[in-house]
Every structure is written in structure tokens, then in C-alpha cells.
Amino acid sequence: MTENLNSEEMKAYEKEQRKEEMQKQMISFALMILFTLIAFAIVASGTLSKMVVIPVLMVMCLIQVGFQFYYFMHMKEKGHGVPAALIYGGVWAALLTLAALGVISWW
Asked: Are residues 56 and 86 in the same domain?
């Protein structure tokens, strides 16, 4: 009888955890949609200079990438060490490539 209570409690706990996770994913999805709409509004308005628009868009882009990794690719969960290392390695390689292209084109 005790085992049934423990399993029912575990099911209730897991259900609550899934509910909280879904709420967090919906909030991050809504924030990503909001950031996208803000980006479109900034570009469509045409009132700001490129020197302001580009950094703002880049910051919003990085925030959205963080949401994607953290919530939708489940990088916050344990057991994702190898995929995380590969993704971070790819990001590092992309940054080095962009830096190299920037240096080459600057000269």
C-alpha cells in the first residue's frame, strides 16, 4: 500500500514538474516572439541609425539564442555534456571565423 502512495506521489510530482517546464517554455516562446516583433518594428521604423540598430538587433539575437539553447534544446538538463561541448565548439569556431574575416577585410 505504501508503494502505491509513493508512486502516486511521484506521478503527481512529475506532472507538476512537466507543468512548470511547459509554463517556462511558453513564457520564453512569448518573449522570443516579442523580441522578433520589436526587431521588425525597429527596422521598419527607419528612424534610428545603423550604428544603433545593428547592436540592438545583435543583443536581441543573442538573447533569443540563449532561450533556444536553454529551454528548447534542453541544454540546462544533466546528461547533455557532449552535445553542449559540440555546440559551444561550433559557436567558438564561428566566432573565430568571423573575427578572421573581420581582420582580413579590415586590412
From this structure: no
Q: Which DSSP letter does residue 80 get?
A: -
56-81: pLDDT as tens digits: 999 988 888 888 877 777 777 777 77
The upper half-sphere exposure of residue 70, i.e. CA atoms within 13 Å in the direction of its Cβ, equals 14
| Structural domain containing residue 66 | 2-76
Q: How far apart are CA 62 and CA 65, in angstroms?
A: 5
Residues 83, 71 share a domain: no
pTM of the predicted model, to two decimals? Answer: 0.63
CA distance 80 to 75: 6
pLDDT of 71 reads: 76
